[in-house]
From TrEMBL:
SMART domains: HTH_ASNC. Residues 1-66 form the HTH asnC-type domain. InterPro entries: AsnC-type_HTH_dom, Dimeric_a/b-barrel, Tscrpt_reg_AsnC-like, Tscrpt_reg_AsnC/Lrp_C, Tscrpt_reg_HTH_AsnC-type_CS, WH-like_DNA-bd_sf, WH_DNA-bd_sf. This is Transcriptional regulator, AsnC family. Keywords: DNA-binding, Transcription, Transcription regulation. The keyword Cell division does not apply. The keyword Transcription regulation applies.
Length: 139
């Protein structure tokens, strides 16, 4: 893999639907040479696929907050109910069952502190959380 391959991958990560001709213009290659390089990257396993990212899956603007929330559920709340609740909240990226003092580790992305406060209140009022501990991602 060389600098042109890296440039191709960089552009495709931003827009996988770009045409070979436009991709070639952006990296300085002909359409045919660009197509051949993309196919080689696919056949060698460097590029393994393309996907559509739904609006609900896209991260909030980069100036938002990314956080990880440890959640302890009310003992009367079933884990399946909590997971179903998390799937309806667009700010929640993932929720994993963990061992230790808490039941779940929830990965979120919110616009700011007010949105974080709303989410935490909602998690306790509707989600069944009795205790939470939030850690903000700094990178």
């Amino acid at each position: 893999m060389d600098d042109l391959d890296s440039a191709i991958i960089g552009v495709l990560q931003l827009n996988a639907r770009i045409s070979f001709s436009e991709l070639g213009r952006q990296i300085g290659l002909s359409t045919n040479a660009t197509a051949a390089r993309v196919r080689r990257l696919e056949h060698s396993g460097v590029i393994t696929g393309y996907r559509a990212i739904l609006g609900s899956d896209a991260p909030v603007a980069e100036d938002g907050l990314e956080a990880f929330i440890d959640v302890r559920l009310d003992p009367a709340r079933k884990s399946e109910e909590f997971l179903e609740w998390t799937r309806r909240i667009p700010e929640i990226r993932d929720a994993v069952h963990v061992t230790g003092a808490y039941d779940y580790l929830v990965h979120i992305r919110v616009a700011g502190t007010a949105a974080l406060d709303r989410l935490l209140r909602n998690m306790k009022n509707d989600g069944g959380a009795t205790h939470t501990q939030t850690r903000l991602a700094l990178r």
